[in-house]
Amino acid sequence: MSAIAAEIKAEVPAKRGSLKRSRRWALVWSYVFLIMFAVFFLMPPVYMLIMGLKSSGEIASMSNPWWVFHPTLDNFIALLTSEQYLTFFRNSAVISLAVVAITMLIAVPAAFSLGRMKFWGSTTLAAGVFLTYLVPDTLLFIPLFKIMAWVHDTTGIALLNHWWALIIIYPTLTVPFCTWIMIGYFQSIPKELDEAALIDGAGYIQMLTKIFLPVALPGIIAATIFAFTVSWSEFLYPMAFTVSADQLVLPVGIVTTLIKGDVYNWGQIMAACLMGAAPPLIIYAFLMDYYIAGLTAGATKG
Amino acid sequence: MANGITVQAPAPPAARRMTMQKLMRRRSTTALALALPLILLISGLVIYPAFFAMYLSMLDRKMETFTGMRNILFLMHFDTFWMVVKQSCIFALSAVFFKALIGFVTSHLVHNLPPKGQRKWRGMLLVPWVIPTAMSTIAWFWLFDPAYSAINWILAKFGIGPVPWLGVTSWARFSVILVNVWYGAPFFLIMYLAALKSVPDQLYEAAAIDGANWWQKVWYVTLPMMRNIIAITMLFSLIVTFANFDIVRILTAGGPVDSTHVFATWAFSLGIQGNNIPMGASVSLFMLPILGVAAFFILRDINRRGSSV
What are phi and psi of B66, to 5 degrees? Predict the structure, then answer.
């Protein structure tokens, strides 16, 4: 018995050593490949920064495109003092914030009702909500375009070429998914909690605001982030529904007005892209865990 | 529970049924009221437009007379249409395949790291997904620019001639797929990483004791455990990629000579730019079959999950 133990003991160090070594090699290779992937993944944003810091003269001279020889903030300053860019930014910001508010006002009560207050057809409706999330904007933009024109003809309310009309359209992109992840969060809350609330004489609305909202706060944050980033980066609807320069949102504004100028002012375009990408990136930097929770919730929670 | 009822027995049966009915009524009306805005939004701005698109696709160009299937038949005899079908399939299938592959590889690499460093790498690698696509695609557009291409600049250092990234059909097709993979792979990475973390360590230990090597562990432990999440992620991604608009629109706008158009961009250029709304609607409706197939599988998945709970 003791002899066997001694034998094992003698063998262990050598084995552990080789295991350790192979682990270390695996780790080194992991880092090597990860650095390669990171270079690929971070190339465009880094390039945006490099070009944003260059002057037009330096870009035109076609020197090393991956290095800034004379960094300057001129492009950023020019954009921040440009009436047009600030208009795009303001349009995007107002639309995104309004859409987030509308989305949460629609999605949270609906998710509570579908997830916790079973009623006739609630399961079917929940599945239906998820299916509508799969209907892409590229299928809906043509009929929506026609409907907006029709609304103008019959009621005189001009929806086309007005940025605020996008506030009505964007919730179709955000509400289904937000409802879906909120259903998941609400269902994960133990049933005893609402029974206790009912016994204490709370109504359903009180139950939602006093118990479910605080407990499901992580889910609400995740859904809010999702709604904001989706409405901030939406490209097709504003591209199809708005034309005039003062009605554009950031992504479309950069693509159509800054690129279609006679001179490609690339330094400024890249600076505009970088600043346009900043709000989602900043939110992501600070709330990464919620962001990722929201991403994975769609497929893993049911 | 039973004890509590017998002790209290507060109301005679009839009265209790009344309050129960009242409660049920109140409960379902409240529930319906809470879900009503959602139902209105979805039926008014998603379901109705979807059917309206079908109606639109059956009108003539001036949208005055009903022509039935004529638009669809016209498309069937149109070479560009078949090219778009082919390109959409090549685009979606290869992009999803490479996204899944890169996501699978990178998730394993990140999973290999010590837990402390994982967060940092995960955060860095998800950046492409966070940047609005329109903006990152503009950066790609310039990275590919024939005169200023920063990628060609690097390739030239290795003696590789200037690559016409967006100028030649085959390269342009490659480029739109590349940018799509760049944008979508981080999503797969996150999903697969979450799946990897949910595989119990004991399974790997058991496999190691049985003498399984690395490949066998991946093939017999990781893949079966991740099968569900791999399937559902690829399905989602297939839908989104099939319906992609912004990358193709900004990078090539369908060119050269319509060769990189997918359904969405072609529908846009026919319907909104070409002012032929019925034709645009017809084209976009060809995205429905893939949606239907995906919906079938996802519903099956939801139902299975519902019955297992």
Answer: -85, 125
pLDDT tens per residue, range A145-201:
999 989 988 888 888 888 999 999 999 999 998 998 898 888 888 888 878 888 888
Determine the structural domain holding residue A250 and report its residue range.
76-300
**Which of B139, B246, B302 minimises the CB distance to A273?**
B139
Report, as an integer, the average pLDDT of B243-265: 88
Whole-number Å distance between alpha carbons of B161 and B15: 88
Decide if A35 is inside a domain.
yes
The residue from A36, A52, A68 where one domain ends is A52
Could you tell me if residue A41 is inside a domain? yes
CB nearest A135 (choices: B50, B233, B272): B50
Beta carbons of A295 and B264 less than 8 Å apart: no
Q: Are A82 and A163 contained in the same domain?
A: yes
A-chain CB neighbours of B290 within 8 Å are none
Chain A residues in contact with B229 by the CB 8 A cut-off are 299-300
A42 and A145 both lie in a single domain: no
Contact A135 B190 (CB under 8 A): no
B38 touches chain A (CB under 8 A): yes
The reply to whether B101 touches chain A by the CB within 8 Å rule is no
Residues of chain A found within 8 Å of residue B183, distances taken between Cβ atoms: none
A126 and A9 co-located in one domain: no
Please name which of A123, A185, A241, A292 lies closest in space to residue B271, comparing C-alpha atoms. A241
The residue assigned the tokens 């709604």 is: A227
Judged by DSSP in three states, B186 sits in helix
| Closest Cβ opposite residue A123 in set B139, B249, B306 | B306
Residue among A48, A124, A139 with most chain B CBs within 10 A, to mutate: A139
Number of C-alpha atoms within 13 angstroms, CB side, residue B176? Answer: 33
Q: Who wins on pLDDT, B41 or B160? A: B41
Which CATH entry fits the domain spanning B72-308: 1.10.530.10, 3.90.1010.10, 1.10.10.10, 1.10.3720.10? 1.10.3720.10
A89 and A7 assigned to the same domain: no
> Among A34, A146, A147, whose Cβ lies nearest the Cβ of B121?
A34
A116 and A247 share one domain: yes
Predicted complex ipTM? 0.86
Helices (H), ranges, chain B: 2-8, 13-42, 48-56, 70-76, 79-112, 115-125, 127-130, 133-143, 150-157, 169-197, 201-209, 214-217, 223-242, 246-251, 263-268, 277-285, 288-308
Report the domain count for chain A. Answer: 2
A61, part of any domain: no
